[in-house]
Amino acid sequence: MKRDFLLFFFIALTAEIGTTWLQKFQGAKDLASGLYYPDLGTMMLNRLIIWLVLFFLLSALGLLLTRAYRKP
């Protein structure tokens, strides 16, 4: 895991940026500047679910690519 620290850092960063970008499309409407959900709990749950899905998909892809690259 230490060997892939930089990979997982970029995966987490990409998942966060993707979640922020996708949040705009899932929100009900603009309630205030930068707020897209009527309550904080709904926003956090939706954000967490999207983030986890993106993180796991990108992690699996990253691990597959690094393992394929390391094998002769």
What's the gist of this structure?
With 72 residues, the protein is mainly alpha-helical. The chain is built from 2 helices and no strands. The longest helix has 31 residues, at 40-70.
Low-confidence stretches: none
Q: Proportion of β residues?
A: under 5%
Q: Which radius of gyration do the C-alpha atoms yield? A: 16 Å
Oligomer: single chain
Helix proportion: over 70%
What's the count of strands? 0
Mean pLDDT score = 76
- What number of domains? 1
First-last Cα distance: 21 Å
Structure class: mainly alpha
Q: In DSSP terms, counting alpha (H) and pi (I) runs of 4 or more, how many helices?
A: 2
Tertiary shape = elongated
Main sheet attributes: strand count, strand direction, barrel closure: none
Characterise the protein shown here.
With 72 residues, this protein is mostly helical. It has one domain (5-70). It has two helices and no strands. Helix 1 packs antiparallel against helix 2. The protein is elongated and about 55 Å long.
Secondary-structure topology with pairs:
Blueprint: H1 5-26, H2 40-70
Identify the notable features of this structure and list them briefly.
single chain; about 70 residues; mainly alpha; about 75% helix
